[in-house]
Amino acid sequence: MFDDTYKTLAGPAEGLYKEKGSKFLAFAYPVHSLEEIKAHLEQLRKDYFDARHHCYAYILGPRKDAFRANDDGEPSGTGGRPIHGQLLSADLTDTLIVVVRYFGGILLGASGLANAYKVAARDAIHRAQIIEKTIDTRYRLSFAYETMNDVMRILKEFDLKPENQDFNLDCSLEVSVRQSLSVRLYDSVANLRTVKIDVIATT
User: Fold this and answer.
1) In percent, how much of the chain has pLDDT > 70?
2) How far, in Å, CA of 130 to CA of 111, rounded?
3) Would you say 175 and 133 are in contact if contact means Cβ atoms under 8 Å apart?
4) DSSP string, 111-164
5) For residues 74 and 80, what is the distance between their CA atoms, to the nearest angstrom?
6) d(Cα 97, Cα 90) in Å, to the nearest integer?
7) What pLDDT, in 10s, does the model give residues 107-145?
8) CA 144 – CA 167 distance, rounded (Å)
9) For residue 79, what pLDDT is reported?
């Protein structure tokens, strides 16, 4: 059976690392879209407008198929990449980490910078609550009224709660099921010949 779970943050968290007068303030957020990421970045740039750099990395999607690392003016690979590396080490997705740097007047060198961004990001992750979520498939079921008892019996077998129910002459409802059970549910419902089942989304 394939893995249909992923890890993300329950809520925002902050971390801190200091090195030779420089301060690295780390901010970790659960996110679900590029719009959310942009909003967090804009807010941090307003709140910490006097900081020299706002390096960040994010990973999106249950399969971690969208990601980016940004150095924001630091030497290539010294800011965003170490932050991204910590997201990977913690096996996180749907997560943004921004590290805001205040320069302390002493150059840290490429390796020192990379280590500082890494440790700051790691501190934020350690202070965060990490949760596990399931990858779910959402279905819409359409059926005749006389089939309702059969449909509800199947949903009860899978311990699923129907949503957006419409029980008129032609009935419909929506239901979400974890992906490892989605084929079994689909087959069970499909055996009821009067039921039409459509995939709405996988999240």
Assistant:
1) 99
2) 29
3) no
4) HHHHHHHHHHHHHHHHHSPEEEEE-EEEEEEEEEGGGHHHHHHHHHHTT---EE
5) 9
6) 12
7) 888 999 999 999 999 999 999 999 999 999 999 999 988
8) 9
9) 96
Q: What are the structure tokens assigned to 79, written together?
A: 């800011």
Count of C-beta atoms within a 10 Å radius of residue 165: 12
Residue 160 neighbours by CB distance under 10 Å: 18
Structure-token match 């019996």, residue found: 153
- Residue type at 134 in one-letter notation: T
Q: How far apart are CA 172 and CA 189, in angstroms?
A: 13
**Single-letter amino acid, residue 89:** S
DSSP annotation string for 21-58:
TEEEEEEEEE--SHHHHHHHHHHHHHHTTT-SEEEEEE
Distances (CA, A) of 27 to 19, 83, 154: 18, 11, 44
The answer to whether the CB of 90 falls within 8 A of the CB of 7 is: yes
Nearest-angstrom CA–CA distance, 133 and 95: 13
Residues 6+ apart with CB under 8 A from 63: none
Name the pTM for this structure.
Answer: 0.83
Q: How far is CA 132 from the centre of its chain?
A: 10
Looking at residue 1, its pLDDT comes to 44
